[in-house]
Hints:
Number of strands: 2
Helix content: 55-70%
Strand order of the largest sheet: 1-2
Radius of gyration: 26 Å
Number of domains: 2
Distance between the termini: 44 Å
CATH class of the largest domain: Mainly Alpha
Order of helices and strands: HHHEEHHHHHHHHH
Number of helices: 12
Shape: elongated
CATH topology of the largest domain: Four Helix Bundle (Hemerythrin (Met), subunit A)
Amino acid sequence: MPRKATASQPLEKLKISLPERPAQVPVRVPKAAELIADVIRRQIVVGELKEGEPLPAEALLMAQFKVSRPTLREAFRILETDGLIQVRRGAGGGARARLPQDATAARSFGMLLQIRGATLAEVLEARTIIEPPLVGQLARNHTDVDLELLKAHVELESRLLEDFEKFGLATALLHELLVKRAGNTVLGLMVGMLDDIFFRHVAKFVSRARPDQLALNKRALANHRHMVERVAASDAAGAEEGWRQHMELLYEIITAEMGGTTVLDLY
């Protein structure tokens, strides 16, 4: 481990060579179309332009920004690529605002994981790291509505216990419900982008029809009920630790059978 510099040991004596600073750092000036796209993007994000609301006519925007039609249309293409507007050509057409969709982000994220060669084991490991603290947070901050939804879902699982395909889907939906009700927007969105992969692996795992599938379902249901009990008791530590153990068990069972599966294989 490198030694830290002290007042009696200036950097020069430690012979640390720092990269030379470039004489001139090139500065890129944004194009007019990019600046226009930034203005309209902000209007959509903060809600000044609502979902489905038409943008002002091209002539008005050209006058507002003092640009030509080609420059304005280039800005529209940037916003279309971002999924923030939809442009319809022809009579009655024009540009309308649209909000980014979770599914669009999830598809792009899933494609990146396929390209990078991510494995199912890595996806499960990521969820094992993220989900338990969220369950602990839910136990601390849950509402009556949260509890009603969780209890109703667990009861649904109990009715589907012997329908392996539907039970598998229900368990995946429980994970989705937990993350959404935990109330952390950032982590909820991050985990949500893995949901499509999570649902696909559940379907593939259940389709293998393991001889011990009913026993696994009963164990999962017992773990889910325990989690709901800990959340209802506002036992954040117990809920978090119990869900961590459940996720680790899930990881062990699935990776033992499907550990070599890549995200690409699931598609």
